[in-house]
Design a protein that fits this description.
The protein has two domains: about 70 residues, no CATH class; about 120 residues, no CATH class. The strands form two sheets. Strands 3-4-8-7-6 form a five-stranded mixed sheet, with no helix packed on it. A four-stranded antiparallel sheet has the order 1-2-9-5, with no helix packed on it. It is an alpha+beta fold. Strand 3 and strand 4 form a beta hairpin. It is built from five helices and nine strands, in the order H-H-E-E-E-E-E-E-H-H-E-E-E-H.
Length: about 210
């Protein structure tokens, strides 16, 4: 389930404060939001994206290239597909899906094909047209490959996907974070660890203190 920076920050605040909103050591929500953005950037191996897209000069301000590794490849009819971990920025020609490659060989990039054109390519010998390389088209959150890449000679069962997404550090409370469901726990754990490093220790005397 998709989460927002506001919701995940409030969840962390409740955990850190032990569920007590009146705690004297209350961590400010804005401080937590900043840390959430930093941790997301680290986990997604963010690369700053500064160029403009031609053909209309589509600006992509505050966007970054996020890396998602070990995305499973599954069967799709007589071919194969992968499901995107999050929705990228909507751009012409599906350029929000910046790159797709095997996890074991990240420099071996697959060839993007405009959506809905693979049927036409099959009629003109797609193998020859792509020089025997792997192509893919984007259909919603699905990456559909031109062949079943799980089989030899490719034997690809996991891929690395790079997506253009909005920089988490610039997001508002209700913007959807560009993280996959399995990353949410990592974000929470790392932010709590960072907060615990400089939280003041409880020096008050209570019944558990020994003389």
């Amino acid at each position: 389930m998709a989460t927002t920076i506001g919701r995940i920050s409030e969840q962390i605040q409740r955990i850190v404060n032990g569920g007590d909103p009146s705690s004297d050591n209350q961590i400010q929500l804005q401080e937590i939001k900043l840390l959430v953005g930093q941790v997301c950037n680290k986990l997604l191996k963010m690369e700053r994206f500064t160029m403009n897209i031609p053909e209309g000069d589509y600006g992509v301000n505050a966007s970054i290239i996020a890396t998602y590794d070990n995305i499973p490849v599954t069967q799709y009819k007589d071919r194969a597909k992968s499901i995107l971990p999050t929705a990228p920025i909507s751009l012409p020609k599906n350029m929000g899906v910046w790159a797709v490659s095997p996890t074991a060989d990240p420099d071996n990039l697959f060839i993007p094909i405009p959506s809905g054109t693979f049927g036409l390519l099959k009629k003109i010998d797609v193998e020859k047209d792509l020089f025997g390389q792997i192509g893919f088209e984007v259909d919603g959150l699905n990456i559909i490959y031109t062949k079943d890449i799980r089989n030899a000679p490719f034997s690809v069962n996991n891929v690395m996907v790079k997506l253009l997404v909005i920089d988490p550090s610039t997001m508002g409370d209700y913007d959807i974070l560009p993280i996959s469901a399995d990353m949410e726990g990592d974000v929470i754990a790392q932010v709590i660890q960072m907060l615990s490093a400089y939280q003041p220790k409880d020096s008050s005397v209570d019944a558990t203190n020994k003389v």
